[in-house]
Amino acid sequence: MSQSTLPSALKTYSVLPDNRSALERGLELGLSEQLYTVPQPYPQLLDARYTQQNMLPYLASERQLPVWDSADPEHIKRNLTGNAWQVRRLSGTRAGLKMALESLDFQSEVTPWYKQVPQAAPYNLEVIAWEKGNKPVNVANVHKLLAYIEDSKSERDVIELSLMFGVETELGLAGARAPATNVKDTHGAASLWPMPNASVSLAIAGSTMPGINIQPLNLLAITPVVSCYAQMGVTAVAGNYSITVSRVNASAVI
Question: Which of 8, 182, 203, 221 would you call most buried, defined as having the most Cβ atoms within 10 angstroms of its Cβ?
Fold first, then answer.
């Protein structure tokens, strides 16, 4: 049996009259026990970082969040809800635009008209945004970005939004080179019995391997009918490769 979570005061205090029955008192204690097993929601209820996930849509609606997609990951929902009031307070500023994009998991660079080259018309802002993790451009995210920017910018501002994504490619090569091959010749003389012409050949083939010591044997027979011939070829190739890894940025202007 689990230990009671009721405060000691409630174990003795009752709202029932003095003529209550034992059954009524038991029902009162049982219902009170059930109520106190429910986690207390109020300390973190209005904190978007820690509130229960099923409470996020209601909290976002209470803060009049202009964009909401139930298919978004949980961390984006918490970012949008938690930054809603701060974005509204900074609306019409570059800081507000950057925070709005950051809430949707985008990093950005905002360039005002007087810093653009060539200089643009007044109140024209250039916004370059890219999703964290170098993800491809998602059309659904583009619509949400445009909607949130439209709600956060000043009425007279004209926004030119460019979406970028990075492509990172890695290529690795590994190799080894065999040690130098040592070749030594050995000469010997043998007295053989008479036989027809004979030839001896030796072939060795290999790839990457440890050092090889080859000692071909040249035989010289003292007989008028025997002649020996041996031939060996060894080919080795070694190369060095240099790999360059570059970053490619592609942009799509909306």
Answer: 221
Which two tokens mark 168? 């990172």
Tell me: domain 63-168, CATH 2.60.40, correct? no
- Cα angle 121, 126, 131 (rounded to 5 degrees) comes to 170
CA nearest to 84, candidates 68, 106, 107: 68
- CA 121 to CA 31: how far, in whole Å? 69
Residue of 92, 130, 114 whose CA lies nearest to 254: 130
Can you name the residues that pair with 128 across neighbouring β-strands? Answer: 109, 162
pLDDT of residue 74: 94
Q: Which amino acid is at 102?
A: E
Residue 84 has which token pair? 């809603």
pLDDT in tens, 118-129: 999 999 999 999
Low-confidence ranges of the chain (pLDDT < 50): 1, 192-193, 195-196, 198, 200, 202, 204-205, 209, 212, 214, 217-250
pTM above 0.70, yes or no: no
Distance CA 145, CA 164 (A): 13
DSSP letter at 125 equals E
Which amino acid, residue 68? W
Measured between alpha carbons, how far is 58 from 48 in angstroms, rounded to an integer? 11
DSSP labels, 33-87: HHHHHS---GGGTT-TTTS-GGGHHHHHHHTT-S---TTS-HHHHHHHHHHHHHH
The pLDDT of residue 140 is 82
Cα three-residue angle 195-200-203, rounded to 5 degrees: 165
Structure tokens at 163: 């979406």
pLDDT attached to residue 134? 73
- For residue 73, give both structure tokens: 């990951």
